[in-house]
Amino acid sequence: MSISRLGTANMYDRTISNISKQQATLASQMEHASAGKRVLRASDDPVAAAQAERARTRMDRIETDKRMLNAQTATIEYGESTLGEITDAVQEFRSLLVQAGNGTYNQTQRDTLVEKLQSLRDQILKYSNRTDSNGLPLFRGLDTETNTPFPNGGNGIQTGQPNSSEYTITNSLDGGLAFFNGKTGNGVLAVDIGSGNTGTAWADIGTISDPAATDLTATGPLDIKFGVDADGKPTYSITYQQEDPANPGTFLTVPWQDANGNPVTDVAYKSGEAINVAGMKLTITGEPKAGDTFTVKPSETQSIFDVLDEAIAGVKNNVKTDGTTAHGGLAHGIAKSLAEIDTAANRVSTVRGVAGDLLNQAKRMGNTLLLRDEQMEAQRVAAEDYDAEGMVKALSQLKSQETAVSAALQSYASIQKLSLFDYIR
């Protein structure tokens, strides 16, 4: 039979150790309860801690996407408002150009309008070269020599960038589409007035009536030349230049044939009556002089700045040596420029519409990111936070632990005063 001997000091140590453990448990429960979290450290619940960490990581990514999307949205909003300013400036330019066609104006008054037109043209160029908060052009120009996206004589541009991820939009707009992809005339054919014309006749841009007949590859540009008949009334003939097979390098004037194969030669002219040429109904108005010409040719690509420059030149230069402007050059130039300005304005409006669509996309993406953020937060809460029932239970356990620790401390305080001598007495 063995006899175990338990010393007083050993009992004290065990008691102190137990009290310390209970106090540590109490401290841990107080920490969890005050934070409202079931899991504060990975050791509390490794699986739940990992789930919560994954949710936080995804929330950080969502927050990054939000910041990027907000920055891109701000840039597109700035670009959209800039396009609005360009549209306003173009409309003001158009109004001044209409004034320039006023028959009561003299060239001095038109020269005053030219100064205003030039100022507006310069404003539009500045608007097109605006940069975002990072110093990058809103419309992404790449002309490194002049350090401007759209210089007077350049066309070095980069179109808008595509979306790079699910929750981003492009941070630039298509400057090429907005400013550089316009067409002369009606977009298919253009009509130029002869530089030596002396009459008052001018032409509109024409309306395409037969798209299949607009191809001038075989003939090249067509010339509408005016003459007079035996009675002195104006007539017109449509011709083109063709190389003489017998004499290479020499060109012959060949009559153009209509859809029925008949040459269009010495046809009676009537002001305002449509002329059918190359699948287009062309209206020439006014009184031409013998020898006056109009040229029909394929449309060419031009920038909005080319349109504005030609309009300014038309108002400035279409004046006779005697100072008068009563001839077809001014009217034709204004009519042509007005039509091309409208086309250019429509292209700017198209890109502005694209900007609006991008802003709508950004709004939808922002709502989706908000929902994803709420979803990830719910997953994190489910993994590491107390629910209502769990919180009540945790507070109950905390109260019980406080009572147990308090009782242990009071009991120990009383017992530690006792000794063997107290027991012998």
TrEMBL record:
It holds the Pfam family Flagellin_N. SUPFAM superfamilies: Phase 1 flagellin (SSF64518). It comes from the Bacteria. The keyword ATP-binding does not apply. It is found in: Bacterial flagellum; Secreted. Keywords: Bacterial flagellum, Cell projection, Cilium, Flagellum. Residues 145-165 are annotated as: Disordered. Coiled coil: none annotated. Residues 8-142 form the Flagellin N-terminal domain. InterPro entries: Flagell_FlgL (IPR013384), Flagellin (IPR001492), Flagellin_N (IPR001029). Belongs to the bacterial flagellin family. This is Flagellar hook-associated protein FlgL. It comes from Comamonas avium. The lineage of its organism: Bacteria, Pseudomonadati, Pseudomonadota, Betaproteobacteria, Burkholderiales. The gene is flgL.
